[in-house]
């Protein structure tokens, strides 16, 4: 991905002693980005993204545009703590630094064709945002995306390790050289070193599971020393609990340990055991709050059982009480309501409508190509197709947040036997909203009249077969 090419501005900076923001976890706090742009000579595409530590899947994505002329545009991000995000205009951009209850101002003169020819950050954290934009321009890369691409590009994990080692050195060296020439807050330099370490760890641990489902890597494809970077201090780090990459690292590493063992079949049973073994204090609290959030969103029955078992162990129950209230009301698409319709592309380039399946029970799945849990369910979705063959049942899956090319590759890789549909950006946003999709994969059971039986129902690996069969008997 290309990054920034030119810079012709002075930037507001703060001395190295600038007071650090609070890193306490406060779910659903707001950070504001104000884009004040002038002399825009054409409509320009805008994309921005952020992730929040709590709740799980607390992601914010916005695809929008900057209209011609001179305007102010406000974007509100939901973040639980100071967090990195991403901003691009006309597909060029870099990392942004978002802080709860703070407004970051970006001033842009868009009279020229290149969107970043003339820009300026202002606000308390202007110098930090300038650092990220300088990094993207000088390295000609957004390093988060460079790491994400490596897992797919490298033919083996040995070569992947080497490339990741090199990328880690590049980022660490860049920070060290940058602070010799520019003023950055001392607290941020320390946090950025930590951020770099956990971004590297998160992508390394995710690469194994990603390649397991996309490249079909065998167990012996993982080098013996691959996890040598994982230490007790890296795992149990109370100062890093606010970092989304720290949480992702923990999750993927614990799943690696789960798949490695053979005795316990349920991840819902084993992951809390690992958390208790490796984590303590607030590190345990935040990890388990995210895990509970994931299960309450995707597997409510298991989530409620986990909640009842571990609730007394939480030091700070505020997060858990908020999660319980949120997910109790999260699935607003109720039984008996008409299921929202769609017109989506199938693998034959034809349009498929929900109404086409009227008269049959529909088991609907929402997934995306980078979702490992989604891929785990695909062979079992194929089994459902075969099990209900000859009966008035349709297993339908809808791919979102993915390119057409990736959708086609994954569908072929898993030889999907389901009714396999693709949602473009417009349909994606509509369906995710109307079906209240909070976590992936997301399953919906719809009756013969096109009415909701259950939104967020069991997965194929759970009780889906029995639920569908029982409904057919009614």
Q: How would you summarize this macromolecular structure in one to three sentences?
A:
With 474 residues, the chain is an alpha+beta fold. It contains 14 helices and 15 strands.
Query: What portion of residues belong to β-strands?
Result: 15-25%
CA radius of gyration: 23 Å
What is the general shape? globular
The overall number of domains is 3
Q: How much helicity do the residues have?
A: 40-55%
What order do the helices and strands follow? EEEEEEEEHHHHHHHHHHEEEHEHEHEEH
Ranges with pLDDT <50 over ≥5 residues?
1-17
Rounded to the nearest angstrom, the distance between the terminal CA atoms is 54 Å
Helical segment tally?
Answer: 14
Name some characteristics of this structure:
474 residues, alpha+beta, Immunoglobulin-like, Glutaredoxin, 3 domains, 4-stranded mixed beta sheet
């Amino acid at each position: 991905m290309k990054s920034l090419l030119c810079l012709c501005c002075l930037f507001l900076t703060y001395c190295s002693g600038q007071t650090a923001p609070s890193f306490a976890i406060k779910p659903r706090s707001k950070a504001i980005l104000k884009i004040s742009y002038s002399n825009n000579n054409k409509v320009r595409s805008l994309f921005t993204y952020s992730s929040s530590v709590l709740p799980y899947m607390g992601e914010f994505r916005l695809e929008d545009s900057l209209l011609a002329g001179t305007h102010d545009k406000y974007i509100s991000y939901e973040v639980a703590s100071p967090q990195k995000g991403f901003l691009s205009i006309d597909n060029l951009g870099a990392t942004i630094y978002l802080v709860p209850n703070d407004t970051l101002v970006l001033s842009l003169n868009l009279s020229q064709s290149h969107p970043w020819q003339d820009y300026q950050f202002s606000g308390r954290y202007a110098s930090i945002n300038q650092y990220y934009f300088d990094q993207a321009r000088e390295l000609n890369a957004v390093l988060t995306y460079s790491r994400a691409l490596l897992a797919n590009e490298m033919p083996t994990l040995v070569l992947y390790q080497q490339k990741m080692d090199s990328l880690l050195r590049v980022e660490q060296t860049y920070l060290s050289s940058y602070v010799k020439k520019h003023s950055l807050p001392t607290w941020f330099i320390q946090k950025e070193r930590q951020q770099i370490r956990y971004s590297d760890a998160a992508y390394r641990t995710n690469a194994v599971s990603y390649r397991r489902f996309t490249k079909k890597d065998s167990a012996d494809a993982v080098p013996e020393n691959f996890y040598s970077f994982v230490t007790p201090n890296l795992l149990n780090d109370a100062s890093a609990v606010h970092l989304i990459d720290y949480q992702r690292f923990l999750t993927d590493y614990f799943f690696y340990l789960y798949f490695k063992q053979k005795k316990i079949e349920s991840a819902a049973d084993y992951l809390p055991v690992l958390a208790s073994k490796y984590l303590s204090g607030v590190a345990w609290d935040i990890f388990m709050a995210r895990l509970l959030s994931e299960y309450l969103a995707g597997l409510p029955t298991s989530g409620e059982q986990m909640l009842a078992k571990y609730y007394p162990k939480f030091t700070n129950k505020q997060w858990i009480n908020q999660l319980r209230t949120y997910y109790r009301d999260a699935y607003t698409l109720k039984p008996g309501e008409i299921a929202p319709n769609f017109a989506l592309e199938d693998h034959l380039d034809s349009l498929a409508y929900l109404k086409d399946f009227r008269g049959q029970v529909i088991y609907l799945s929402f997934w995306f190509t980078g979702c490992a849990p989604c891929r785990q369910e695909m062979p079992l979705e194929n089994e459902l197709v075969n099990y209900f063959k000859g009966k008035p049942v349709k297993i339908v899956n809808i791919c979102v947040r993915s390119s057409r090319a990736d959708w086609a590759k994954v569908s072929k890789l898993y030889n999907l036997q389901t009714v396999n549909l693709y949602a473009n950006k417009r349909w994606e946003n509509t369906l995710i909203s109307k079906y209240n999709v909070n976590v992936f994969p997301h399953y919906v059971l719809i009756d013969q009249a096109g009415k909701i039986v259950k939104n967020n129902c069991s997965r194929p690996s759970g009780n889906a077969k029995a639920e569908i069969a029982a409904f057919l008997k009614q």
